[in-house]
Amino acid sequence: MKHLVLLLKVQFAGMFGINKRLHANRRKTASSAAVVAVVALIIGAAICAYMALIAQSLVIMGSARTIPLLGVVIVSAAVVVTTFMKAHGTLFMLSDYDEIMSLPVKVPVVVLSRLIPLYALSMLFSAVVLIPMMAVYAHACSLAPASIACVVVAVVLTPAIPAAVAVVLAALAAFASARMRHANIVMSCVLMVFMVALVIGVMVMTSGPGAEDSLVSLGSSMGASTIDALGNAYPVASWAAAGMTSQNLGAFALFAGASLVVGALMIAVLTRLFQPVNQRLTSAQVRAEDAAGLSARPMRVRSPFGALLAKEARMLMNTPIYFMNACAGFVLALVASVAVVVAAALGYDPLEAVPGEMRGMVVLFIPWVLAFMVGMMTTTSASVSLEGKCRWLMLTAPVPARTVLGAKLGLALVTGVPAAVVSGALLAWGFGMDALQAAVLLLCAVAAVTFSATFGLMMDVRYPRFDWTSPYEPVKRGVSVFASVLGAAVYVVLGCAATALLGLAGTFMIAAAGLVFAVFFWRDAINVEGA
Amino acid sequence: MAAAEIPVLKVLNVTRVFGEKRALDGVSLDVPAGSIFGFVGPNGAGKTTLIRSIVGVAKPDAGDIRIAGQSVLTDGLACKRQTAYVPDNPDVYEFLTGMQYLDYIADIFEVPAALQHERIRAHAERLRIAQDLGSLISAYSHGMRQKLVLIGAFLHEPLLMVLDEPFVGLDPEASFQVKGMLRELAARGSAVFFSSHVLEVVEKLCDQVAIIQHGRIQACGATEEVRGAAGLEAVFLEMVRETTEPPEGTPTQEDVR
Questions:
Q1: Core vs surface per residue A116-129: b (16+ CB within 10 A) or e
Q2: What is the pLDDT of residues A244-297, one digit of tens each?
Q3: B133 and A289: CB-CB below 8 Å?
Q4: In this structure, are B199 and B73 located in the same domain?
Q5: How many CB atoms lie under 10 A from the CB of residue B43?
Q6: ipTM for this model
Q7: Separation CA B103–CA A300 (nearest Å)
Q8: Is residue A359 domain-shared with residue A263, that is, in the same domain?
Q9: Is A285's CB within 8 Å of B106's CB?
Q10: Who among A184, A306, A396 is closest to B107 (CB)?
Q11: Which of A241, A290, A441, B151 could form an SS bridge with A69, CB 3.0 to 4.6 Å?
Q12: Which domain holds residue B109?
């Protein structure tokens, strides 16, 4: 127990750079701590408000009884995805694996010290989703004391089964990819396929008989039958909901029991897999190339910018959590746009469910839907932080900061702009847009990618985090990443507002403004870094 | 001053302050072309702080550092082009193979195509790492990474080579080879500036040496002059003892003998 507490203290101290901020007495550190706190609060408040809004929509539709079930399903789906992504870097491929395994601490304690912070964050998310939804439910239907107790237990236990499933899947994926030469690249692809499959799976499940809408429109008009279908697909959620709504303690006990048993099984399985998987991952990378390989290599000289860009691309492809975080939006935009085109080609109307008079309005907002997908995340917002201990290479390189940062920006544009243009072109065709609408759509998507890339870069230059032990830390917990997401969200919201007020001209104006801002962000970044 | 007389490295009254602590307090020294300069001092004396300032990783609060007459403060890029740096920890991108890393460094320093392959091969074979260049760096031992960083540093044949504890982690043969490579580089007119705690190596390899303590240069000059008859270790321990009052009960040099 003492060992677990000590290991946990280190884990929590490292989380969000807490310890650094506690012990550094500098104005810059204090201001970055304030930014972290404000951004975290805003994001938390936004999620709470959004969840309450979804619940309120269900109350208005007369489907209040489905609120608890929907809450549990949302938490479960999110925990599966995030835990699967976090496992690589937190549980497997740890940079401090040798260090912790050489300590006189039992493996289960090491495993628990890694799992508890992971689970704590899932539990926090569970609270942020379930509490506002259940508050709305309580307001509409009132809650008995037994139900309130069930809600509290559900907040704690809901992530258990999804986390267990995700951890086991991540372990198997890591184990399978370990013998491959480029295990990290394989892992990046596996993560991306997993996420796309999950999203498509949820969409297919929610578009069965009786369901009019997809997950995108979950908030306002998701049918009660769809939510019930989700409950049938994942009965554990139904058991939890039964306890929270009708004080069916038997069903709730099933939920709690299943969560505890599966959670315990996860710890047992992970304890067994932790060492073999990590050993396999660390030893698998040794592959000598004979001397002939050295002499046979082609004479290929790149410019410093080309060399830096190639290095950035390798970093992206070899860091699964980075690739997943930065590029998922591009992949989803492409998948969604292809789906729209396929549906249109097969004779289905992508806007079938939208009333005729609303169609023009919906098409007007499509540029911002695409901008949201391609602009919310970017490679640049963690690219400086990811230099970590190797930043001496960047600092001693005989090239100006604009070349180093230009390569980071270049990668974001090389990955984002083609995805934006192809998705935009497909959506324009799928929704039958005219030339002007299509042009504005493409401009809007490209502007979102550029805005996001330059803003993310500026934030990461201003608030880098170099003292990480796992790339998960700068990618998922970095101040710059938080701020970048928030900045892109504000940009999209402003764009929607302008479009609502001014139509296509509003879209054009905000897109153009985004490009102008991008120039300022870029200049600020190279000035801070010292061009 | 004639070009030939300009020292490759000139440190002018450099001061660096961290909060209350003066990590460097008016440090000045010259490293002429063709010399190997040893920089020694106890832990926390300011060695790495000065080295980081020389290579442009950190800026001094006062003073100037000139490489071949150009200031690192005003002509940073020009200075970096002529300098190579080997840090105390060989942290390099683990997602690259050894060859990819060397290609990357050669391209960044714009080493001509015709020379890249020749130099990589020569240095890699000399340090017996050619067979491993196709492997990912994440699979390298500390010593292999150190060899890789050293090869990267030699690729553009720098005018100034700055090394922080370069022999840590190297096997005896590699250590021997690196010393030879440094001597050859100096013989071609470059200057080598390195820090080390291994005083025997400094004594044998360097023609000039400086001892730093509490951010101040305590002694600086030709190695023979600084070490005198007593040897560098004795001089070093004496200086450290003079500037730091040891805790009661700490064995003295005489006690150890």
A1: bbbbebbbebbbbb
A2: 888 788 888 999 999 999 999 988 888 888 887 777 776 655 444 444 446 545
A3: yes
A4: yes
A5: 7
A6: 0.80
A7: 9
A8: no
A9: no
A10: A306
A11: A241
A12: 91-157
